[in-house]
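[scheduler] slot 2 assigned
[scheduler] job type: sequence-to-structure, two independent chains
[scheduler] chain ordering preserved from manifest
[runner] begin chain α
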Amino acid sequence: MATPETGSRATVHAASVDQGNPAALWAAFTQTRSIPARENLFRHYLPYAQAIAARLFAGRLRDDVDFGDFLQLALVGLLESIDRFDPDQAVAFETFCTPRVKGSVLDGVERLTDAQGQISFMRRAQRERIASLNSGIEGGGEKHQDTFQRFAHLAAGLAIGYMLDDTGMLADDGERPADAISPWQGIAWRQTRERLAAAMTALPERDRRLVQYHYFYGLQFEQIADILGVSRPRISQLHRAALAQLKRLLGNRQRLYVKG
C-alpha cells in the first residue's frame, strides 16, 4: 500500500509523469511510494481491469450478481496487484495482475452468491449516499429546515446520483447492453448526458475523480479513501459537496431526463 502523502512534492512529481507511459508511472511509484503515484497507476490500468470484469460478467452462469459487483471486485484486485507488483521482475504487469483480478472477481462473486442475505453493490452504494447526504442536513447549518425541505434536499441528491449511475459516461459502449428507448427518449437522454458531462468538467479535480470512481466504476467510499489518501468521513463530505455543486450547475432538474 502507498504511504501517506507528505506534502506537495509527491503530488507535483506524480503530475509531471507522462500518464500514458507505464514505465514512467512505475518508476515514479517505486521511487516515492506516494498516494498520487499509486493513483496514477490505478487510473492507467483501470480500463484493463474493467475489460476483465466485463468478460467475466458476459460469461456468468447466474444472474443474481450485478455488473457493479463484478467491476468493484476487479478494481479491488487491481489495487492489490499494484501494491504487490515488483517492476524489476521480468514480467509485464498485465501478466501479473490478470489472474489476481480474475481471482478477486470469481472468489468475491462466489461469496456473494453463497450469502443469501448479502447486500448488492447498488444497495450498499445507496446506503452510503443516503448517509452522506443526511449528514449534511443533520450536521451543518440546515437544521432549521422542515421535513419537506429535508426530503427535497435528499431527493435532489439521490436523483443526481441516479442520473450519474445511468449515464455510464466513462464506460465503453460495448461493455454494457443498452436499454431499448424511444427516439425522443434518446434525444432527451443525450441532452442530459451532455449537461452532466459539462457539469462534471466544472468540478474540482479531486471531486471529479471521486464521482468517477464511485458512480462510474462502483468503488465504495472506503476504497476511494484508500486511493485518494484521506479518511472515509472525508470522502463522505467530498461526495456531498460534489453533488451539491452538480445540483447548482445543472440548475432546474425539471429540464433533465431520468430514465425509468
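[runner] end chain α
[runner] begin chain β
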Amino acid sequence: MMFEPGSFGFDLRPSELMERSDSEEAAYDAEHGPRFPVALRIRRVAQPDGGWLPVSAFDAASLGDPVPLFSVENVPADVVGLAVDYLTRVCSGSSARDAFRIPLAGAVLAGRADDGERLLSMVSGLSDRSVAAACRLCGYDAASRRGPSRWDPDRVPDPDYATLRNVRRMVGRSLRFIDLVGPVVWGGFTFDGGYTDLITDGSGDLLTADGLWDLKVSRWPPNPVYTLQLLVYWRMGLHSIHPEYRSVGRLGLYNPRSDMMWSIPVSRVPERVIDDVERLVIGYRE
C-alpha cells in the first residue's frame, strides 16, 4: 500500500523538491499503475492569480507561545513535521501503532519490520527517548509514500537536543490548539464515496464539531496550494458517504512552528470558486 505526501499531516518540502518528487511519482505510476492523491493533484493544477481561495481571505491569529524554538534542527524538516503530527495523535489518545501506521508499513516495505517494531516500542509520551524513536521511525515514511526504492536508510540521524526540544514544544502547541478548536470529531478523515477519476486517494488531518483543519509545520506562510487543499477536502467530504462533513462551517490551517492559525467561514467561499474546483480540480460532473 502507498500513501500520499501530506495525507497524515505535513508536507514541508521546498517547491523544487515537491516538483522532483512529482516527477518520481509519475515514473512510479507509469511502472506500477496510476495513483491520484489529493496532494499530487492540487500541485498539478494551474490556479488563477492568487489562487482560487487566496490566503488574504483568511482570518489570521497568533496563539502566542512566548517560548521560541531553536532555529536549527539536525533532522530533515519533513520528518520533524511527521513526528510532530504522529506524536500529537498519540498524546491525544490514539495508540502509537495507529498513529505511526504509515512508517510502520514503510518499514515492512523496506525490509526493516523488526526495526520499525523496535522503534515503536520506545514511543511513549514526550521523553527524549520517545521523541528520538519517533523521528527515526518517521524516516520510514518515504518507503510508504514514494516506494522503498526511494527510502534512504541514512537520511535521519539521531536527533540533537534542539530537535528534540522543538518537536516536544510543537506537540505541546498542537495540543493547545486542539483544546482551543476541539474537540476532535475525526482525525485522519477520509472521503469514501467522494473520490473521482482525478482524485482516487487522500485523507486529511482534523475534523472538529464545526471545522475542517489542516496542520502544516513550515517555516513559510500558507500558500494557494494549502488553501486549495482545504477547499478540495471540504467539497470531497460533502460528496462522500460521511455525514460529519455537513456540520463544517469553517476551513482552517494551523502551523505549530509559527504558532499561527488561519481560518475562513465556508459562507465566504464564492459559489463560482466552489463550482470551478469541483469541476476542474476534483472532476465532479453536474
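[runner] end chain β
[qc] chain β: Strands lie at 59-62, 184-187, 206-208, 211-215, 250-255, 260-265.
[scheduler] slot 2 released
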